[in-house]
Design a protein that fits this description.
Helix content is 41%, strand content 19%. The protein contains nine helices and eleven strands. A four-stranded antiparallel β-sheet has the order 1-8-3-6. The protein has a four-stranded antiparallel β-sheet with strand order 2-7-4-5. The chain folds into two domains: 3-160, Jelly Rolls, CATH 2.60.120; 164-242, Winged helix-like DNA-binding domain superfamily/Winged helix DNA-binding domain (Arc Repressor Mutant, subunit A). Helix 4 (126-135) crosses helix 5 and helix 7 (197-204) crosses helix 8 (208-220). Residues 164-237 form the HTH crp-type domain. This is Fumarate/nitrate reduction transcriptional regulator Fnr. Residues 30-100 form the Cyclic nucleotide-binding domain.
Length: 252
């Protein structure tokens, strides 16, 4: 694990003010078409608070929807609660990604969001973002793209849970995290998972025992090397091939 990668994954954000234009994630968060003056306008509405510590809530289910949150460092897990009180993990969000898009439809958050590690976010008040997006077409397009990605992500998860084997589900999640690190020009083959295996199992609709069994199998076949949360993908093509595997195995 190189030091630069570890710093981006887990380090608390500096207290020094960082303008949106200087942020290392601006190529992911911001529309490429924005002019400097437009970035200044966006920066003027962004709220930057103290970092969340592991286990801190960003928001809770039922809270009024006021803002969306761009993750600067760390990781966020979202989850919902069933009628019988069972927790269901609904997503994992990494630096450069936006969380909170479950809120606009009902003006309340449907999910809860919790920090998986020390995490810094930029809060963007949604009413002010809407007003600004009417003035800045590039920003409006970016907002629509964010909403579209959220819908596509939900659809992919539905398809993943409904049609594939346990091995394919684990492989798909590993490849998703890999691709997201690669977007930051970090290693796509060597990284640290922000979530626990129990969270992975919950998200994928599997038991913890099944996820552990899949990891053991991947290691025996030298496709993946795993040391707790530290992952090395040794055979990327083989891992990708597993995402197409269907099966009838019982997952729960």
């Amino acid at each position: 694990m190189n030091q630069h990668q570890q710093r981006i994954c887990t380090a608390p954000h500096s207290k020094v003010y960082t303008h949106c234009n200087d942020c290392r994630l601006n190529s992911i968060c911001l529309p490429l078409s924005l002019e400097f003056s437009d970035i200044d306008k966006l920066d003027s509405i962004v709220q930057r608070g103290k970092p969340l510590q592991k286990g801190d809530n960003l928001y809770r289910s039922g809270d009024p929807f006021k803002a969306i949150y761009a993750i600067r460092s760390g990781a966020i897990k979202t989850w919902s609660s069933s009628r019988d009180g069972e927790e269901k993990v609904t997503g994992f969000y990494l630096p450069g990604e936006v969380v909170g898009l479950d809120g606009p439809a009902e003006n309340i958050h449907i999910n809860s969001a919790i920090a998986l590690q020390t995490t810094s976010v930029c809060a963007i008040p949604f009413d002010r973002l809407e007003a600004l997006s009417r003035q800045v077409p590039g920003l409006q397009r970016n907002l629509l793209q964010l909403l579209s990605r959220e819908i596509n992500s939900d659809q992919k998860q539905f398809n993943l849970l409904g049609r594939t084997s346990a091995e394919a589900r684990v492989a798909s999640l590993l490849l998703s995290v890999s691709a997201r690190y690669e977007r930051h020009q970090l290693s796509a083959q060597e990284f640290t998972l922000p979530m626990s295996r129990s969270d992975m199992a919950n998200f994928l609709g599997l038991t913890l025992e099944t996820v552990s069994r899949v990891f053991s199998s991947l290691q025996k076949r030298n496709i993946v090397s795993a040391n707790r949360k530290d992952i090395v993908i040794t055979e990327m093509l083989a891992l990708r091939a597993l995402t197409h595997k269907n099966g009838d195995e019982t997952c729960r």
